[in-house]
Amino acid sequence: MLVLDTNGTPATHEVELRGRAEPLPQGPAGPAGPAGSTGPTGPNGADGQTGPTGANGPIGPQGPKGDPGAGVTGATLSCKKAKVRRGTVRVRCTLKLAVTAQVRAARVTVTRAGRIVARGTGLASRGTVRIRLPAGVRRGSLRVVTIDPTGRVRETRTRIHRR
Known about the structure:
Blueprint: E1 2-5, E2 12-15, E3 72-85, E4 88-99, E5 105-112, E6 115-125, E7 128-133, E8 140-147, E9 153-160
Antiparallel strand pairs: 1-2, 3-4, 4-7, 5-6, 5-8, 6-7, 8-9
């Protein structure tokens, strides 16, 4: 029922309404709107906890045997007076290397405090190699390179002292 309020007499009128409601008519769909702008990137999350330490793997197999050394079993340095010439006594120093039977020749470099102080070469005879060195060589680190009958070159390091 619909009540009308007017300025005439009677002031209110009642009107009865009847009818059926139907759906509203639909028009065609409109075009799609533009895409919205991308929002700001959010902050990074907190770092996770460190994982547990992994287990150690198995021990690998033993490697092959290395080449034999240069065949030097000992080194001594001996110095003695040799000759007097023009009022000067000459001192002769000899480095004696005890070597294995396979060694045919040796080349030595004597260093002290990282500097080379002497060099020499010699052939093996009856298990020894004798190499003449300057008189000032009393001690130092010795690098010995030996050659066997097959021509194979081997190196070793040792220390020498005056005997």
